[in-house]
């Protein structure tokens, strides 16, 4: 673990169970769904064109053992629908748990955080339910719909520049004035334990579904039919969670420790957003990330406390990255096949299962012909029709490949708004200039916690 950052409470499965007891009356036990069609798709080899294309996106996604043909694993998918959680994302779990651990004297002063979206709404909701004041510092570039949602939940929203020093300075100023207690977005033991409750529920729900005892109304299929006809093992063999700050992934790993269920992380590769994957390869946490991946919920480096869990190979068995196009394809499949709306970050796990050849070959090798029951946490669904339409707007035919963080060409097509017209800055460049302009006019690329 990084020096100077220690969890306030031991990160153990027992403490996740205790966290669930504290918050279960405040949060939804979200449904677990299955899909015969998506499982069949995941169990078929990628077509050769897609397989060859993936080699140019992420070098680590190709097989390291010299294979030149796509993997052919057997996969049965289960989806934990945290996109149907209160405020539309798993973040409600951590916020409610963090507040449950504060003393009444602390709560009287209110709570404060800095966030651009889901954590802001989660803390505002948890504070409203406890009848306490919440102060949320949001960058001026935050999505208008998320600002409005946070305000609608009764929070006092304060705007800052997008750099970490600016956000932290404003938080400190408000704390000095109000005495409010800081509730971090992810780098906090109580947050991690709260987020782990999703995996705790997931484990029990799938065990019940695969045992043939029914789902008590909390499980079912995207498409009609029995839960894979009783084929395969009972319960989950593996779970995949998105990774940004690492609260959900480390909470999942903590909840499932010593259960025999393997835990994996999923990240975007665009512009170095796969800091967790790269950090594991380097053997140290990467403290800074600057990326404009479409998966805006994970545009942040892994926190020190989550890293202490994620970097333990006994708890997290690997982290895998996917391209922007692969995230969009997974989103589309969830929408069209599963009638399920998720934000880009929520589609990361399915994208890894469908397109990351390193992961797929590992499943083929370790699971054998019986295959695995793989759980995917759909972490959130906070998007809008306008954002989805913008995301899938066709790019001009003359678009050139973008470059990744290492300067290598990426075969992910640039977003339509990323293309310059007659030398003028693209819309995304203009947005980014607004987003990284500090209070004193300096331009600094900085990430914002989700």
Mind explaining what this structure looks like?
With 450 residues, this protein is of the alpha/beta class. 38% of the residues lie in helices and 12% in strands. The chain has 18 helices and eleven strands. The protein has helices at residues 13-23, 36-43, 48-57, 91-100, 104-107, 118-129, 144-152, 164-178, 189-195, 197-210, 247-255, 275-282, 304-310, 324-336, 348-355, 357-367, 385-391, 427-436; strands spanning 32-34, 75-81, 111-114, 134-139, 156-160, 181-182, 219-221, 238-242, 262-268, 318-322, 372-378. Strands 7-1-2-11-8-9-10 form a seven-stranded mixed β-sheet, sandwiched between helices. Helix 7 links the parallel strand 4 and strand 5 (156-160). Helix 1 (13-23) packs across helix 4 (91-100), helix 6 (118-129) runs parallel beside helix 7 (144-152) and helix 14 packs across helix 15. The longest helix is centred in the middle third of the chain and has 15 residues, at 164-178. It is globular and about 60 Å long. Residues 56-65, 213-218 and 399-445 have low confidence and may be disordered.
């Amino acid at each position: 673990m990084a020096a100077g950052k220690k969890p306030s409470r031991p990160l153990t499965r027992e403490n996740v169970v205790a966290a669930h007891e504290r918050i279960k009356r405040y949060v939804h036990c979200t449904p677990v769904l299955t899909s015969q069609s998506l499982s069949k798709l995941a169990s078929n080899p990628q077509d050769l064109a897609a397989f060859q294309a993936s080699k140019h996106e992420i070098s680590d996604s190709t097989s390291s053992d010299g294979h030149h043909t796509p993997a052919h694993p057997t996969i049965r998918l289960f989806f934990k629908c945290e996109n149907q959680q209160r405020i539309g994302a798993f973040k409600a779990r951590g916020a409610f748990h963090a507040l449950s651990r504060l003393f009444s004297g602390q709560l009287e002063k209110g709570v404060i955080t800095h966030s651009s979206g889901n954590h802001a709404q989660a803390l505002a909701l948890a504070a409203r339910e406890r009848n306490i004041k919440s102060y949320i510092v949001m960058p001026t570039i935050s999505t208008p719909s998320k600002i409005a949602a946070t305000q609608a939940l009764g929070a006092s929203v304060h705007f800052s520049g997008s750099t970490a020093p600016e956000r932290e300075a404003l938080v400190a100023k408000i704390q000095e004035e109000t005495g409010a207690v800081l509730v971090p977005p992810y780098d906090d033991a109580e947050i991690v334990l709260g987020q782990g409750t999703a995996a705790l529920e997931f484990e029990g729900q799938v065990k019940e579904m695969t045992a043939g005892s029914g789902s008590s109304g909390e499980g079912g299929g995207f498409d009609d039919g029995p839960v894979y006809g009783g084929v395969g093992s009972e319960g989950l063999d593996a779970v995949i969670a998105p990774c940004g700050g690492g609260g959900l992934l480390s909470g999942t790993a903590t909840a499932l420790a010593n259960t025999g269920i393997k835990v994996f992380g999923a990240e975007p590769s665009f512009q170095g957003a796969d800091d967790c994957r790269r950090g594991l390869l380097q053997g140290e946490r990467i403290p800074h990330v600057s990326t404009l991946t479409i998966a805006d919920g994970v545009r942040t480096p892994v926190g020190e406390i989550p890293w202490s869990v994620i970097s333990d190979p006994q708890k997290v068995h690997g982290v895998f990255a996917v391209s922007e196009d692969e995230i969009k394809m997974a989103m589309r499949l969830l929408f069209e096949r599963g009638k399920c709306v998720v934000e880009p970050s929520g589609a990361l796990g399915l994208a890894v299962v469908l397109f990351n050849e390193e992961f797929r070959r590992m499943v083929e090798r370790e699971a054998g012909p019986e295959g695995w029951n793989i759980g995917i946490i759909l972490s959130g669904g906070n998007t809008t029709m306008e954002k989805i339409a913008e995301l899938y707007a066709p790019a001009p035919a003359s678009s050139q490949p973008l470059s990744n963080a290492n300067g290598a060409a990426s075969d992910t097509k640039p977003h339509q708004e990323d293309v310059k017209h007659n030398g003028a800055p693209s819309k995304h460049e203009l947005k980014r200039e607004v987003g990284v302009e500090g209070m004193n006019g300096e331009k600094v690329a900085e990430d914002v916690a989700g």
